[in-house]
Amino acid sequence: MLLVLCVDLDDDLGRKTDFTTPVIGRDAVEKAAVALATADPEDSDVNVAFQGVHIYDDLTSRNESVEVAIVTGNEDGDVDANREVGDEVDTVLASLSTAEDVTALVVTDGAQDESVIPVIRSRVPIDGVRRVVVRQAQNLESMYYTFKQVLNDPETRGTVLIPLGILLLIYPLALIGTVLEMPGVVLGVTSTLLGLYLISRGLGLGERLDDAVESARRSLYAGRTTILAYVVATALLVLGGVSGANELERVQAEAAGEVGVPVMLSALLYGSVQWFAAAGVTTSLGQITDEYIAGRLEWRYLNAPFYVISIAIVLYAVSAYFLDAVGLTFLATALTAGTLLGIVSTLAFAVAESHFSEEESEEPHRPDSA
């Protein structure tokens, strides 16, 4: 049996007439269509109901087993309306007295009502969908529904409307720039904002930024020391950059001629490496503290601050040697000390981890009770 389902997602029939839904049967559907047309001749659901009657009569004349019904949702739309349509479809299917397999032909008045098709398909196989649109307004509702979906979708709205809004602002901003005698600056800033936005959307930086903010918020509420360590480390990095720039200025001022690239890099590194090392140690200690509190600390994690110190010693010695601040003996000693510090810390914590892991794996033997 073929079930012709006329879908009225926003329940115009129930709101504008005295009919209760679902409406089942050819004569009942025709009466409901006439009542809706009388109440509101311009309602497109009138055409849907009459189309359902027309399909029913056409198939009946060819001796096919067919039934027609009207199912409705509610004026709220979205999920609640789809659920009500699903419930009414269940009611219609339960009222059919037939041993044949039932399939459905869905009749709608546009794309909005067709959003309920997955709900209907979950209850009965669908043979086809018939869209009824007034010829003078063909595709108008579909276009309206498409624009409505674009405006309601936050992701699409941000992707489409924000660049469009920036483009529309270019002309008034250019006028303002002309009045202020700075047209190039205004257009440059506008173009830069548009470019940065498109690049961020293309690379997905917005989602990453949202994730980072959410992670920072959770860390703050959870009392994690990592976020404090990151703040302190950021300040240390800034101070290190300033210190390195000051050291470079000092070296350039004392130099008789031009300063080469190796010397410039060495000056920047010599002035900033201790600050950068302090930032690395701070962040590693913060991470170690959080891992210990969470019960996930492993011995090898303790290598991090020692590695940072070892690298800092090596870089400090190398940069100082290029600046003629130390001799070759000091450089060799620092390289050896940095290497040994890293190796010794690695071996020490590896042995400690192995030792304590063996102790934890050994369960104490209990004497058997008599």
TrEMBL record:
Domain of life: Archaea
Membrane-spanning parts: 158-176, 182-200, 221-243, 263-283, 304-323, 329-352
Annotated InterPro entries: DUF373 (IPR007254)
Keyword Transmembrane helix assigned: yes
Keywords: Membrane, Transmembrane, Transmembrane helix
Keyword Acyltransferase: no
Entry-linked Pfam families: DUF373
The protein's name in its UniProt record: DUF373 family protein
Organism name: Natronococcus amylolyticus DSM 10524
